[in-house]
Amino acid sequence: MRLFAALSLLFLGSSTNICLASSADDPAKPGNTQPETQHIFGDWGGLRTSLATKGIDLSLGYIGQLAANVSGGKRAGFDYAQQLEFKADFDWGKIANLSGFSTHAIFVNRLGRNLSSDYIGDNVFQAQSMYGGGGNVVVHLAELYGEQAFLGGKVDVAAGRLLVGEDYATSPLYCDFMSTAVCGYPNSLAAKAGFTTFPNSTWGARVRVAALEHLYVQAGAYQVRPEAGGNTGLNWGWSGTTGTYYPFEVGYEPAYGSSRLNGHYKLGFVHDTSNYPDLLEDENGLAFAETGNPAAMHNGRNSLYFLADQMLYRSGQKPEDGLILLGGFVSSDKSTSQFSRFAFFGLTDQGIIASRPDDSFGVLVAWQEVSDALAATQALQAANGMPLEKSAQGIQSHESLIEARYNIAVSPGLAIMPDVQYVVHPDAARVLPNSVVVGIQMKANL
User: What is d(CA 319, CA 85) in angstroms, rounded to the nearest whole number?
Assistant: First the structure.
């Protein structure tokens, strides 16, 4: 009965609720060509076009994710999570003749349970990207900011309640997958306090410059506040602020040959000015797990990343029509970062079946390494019968995830995606057996 109820909720939500997927799922980000969004109800009887001519773009949508742990982990079971989203974009050039100026707002509602913590025992990768982050409230503000374009869009400035992950280290391809390994940013970056992720924003600003053809650079400054905007997203104060997050990214976007095989290559560096504790040593350079002294503090934390995707074969005219190879690598400070290295690669193919040009297939392999310093501390704690740092299941080392999915375009604006995940060493430890997860995702854009 519980399974029937969950499935009923999944399909009922797709027909009665709203959304243009999450911003993390369908990001309007610099440095990426965006797929055209389709809607179940088309042009809303001409209303969408009428509003667009007046400078108003409204989007409603729903994402539901039902996932089951069928083998391994803690025990068998299933959970459901969903997101409803309302997005409003205003072009003030059309509304009030303020050329190049626009404002953007996103509100979400999230509910459900987390399969990874409930049944797998995993706090590294999460099987359902739609779980959490929205607060246990009816409406949560995800973003609210203004944007000004200069020189015909070659220079773009945004400021307000922003997410680092909406502009940096991201791609529309990443949330084609259901897990949080890369949706909508590499997990190693998203796990850090300064790298704000959807739907939690802080005060921030960024500037992007299209320096040369196919080349852009962008930089920004963002408030580091672990609680972000609180449960509602409307707590905009400065109490609890620990520092400033400075991301910098260079992107190269070629289009090769007569088929225009699109590519996106990103090199980024981020610096967080906050103070973070050493994961192994105290202020005397000794292991705090043995001395009992407080951990030494470090002023600032850095990460470096390289991300790429390249179309190898084109099967249609839309941005993602064809076979695309993607991959990336992230490296972070070992002394202060729980996850020191992260790597992934994958393939996506839209139009793999000629008679179904809007269907797509994807496979992803991701690997995440826990800091050697943290693992050493956990080993000392285990030897002394102490609780392990980060509430780990066991001494952590690394975790891998293999994911495969097939997205079925049921009708314009409606898609169903079966998904299979194989989790190697859940929670990056060797305590729980490897886990097999099967799931289904539904997206409805009204």
Answer: 24
